[in-house]
Hints:
CATH superfamily: Glutaredoxin
CATH architecture: 3-Layer(aba) Sandwich
Amino acid sequence: xxxxxxxxxxxxxxDVSLSEYKGKVLLIVNTATRCGLTPQYDGLEAxxxxxxxxxxxxxxxxCNQFAFQAPGSIENIDxxxxxxxxxxxxxxxxxxxxxxxxxxxxxxxxxxxPGRIEWNFAKFLIDRDGNVVERFASMQKPETLEDxxxxxxxxx
Length: 156
């Protein structure tokens, strides 16, 4: 099993098979728009701009489970992120990352790198084969992930 076995909803409500990302290095992040960590969008977008042409994708999953810091519709969230942080990476529908309604993708991610999602902006690095290779805490700034991302991109 790998992340490619999951189907998620995009920000328009359409099913998206993560197999569409086969062969790419992925960073999967649960996000929020009203969080002290929201400025991490700047760092995420900088990484995306720098490495997307080398096969890097960021998959953004807004989550309202932590102090209700991702309020509003997915349309509102998408508009905020695009206008405020100029994000261009794929954004998906809101999900739950903990508890009985945990999205299947996040249940799998937490099986691979155990532990409860502690807050917004927890990050999972996925290799080109769909394997979870690293988990980064919410407080870890995106720019500190660059060496790990480059290492995965250099593997064929």
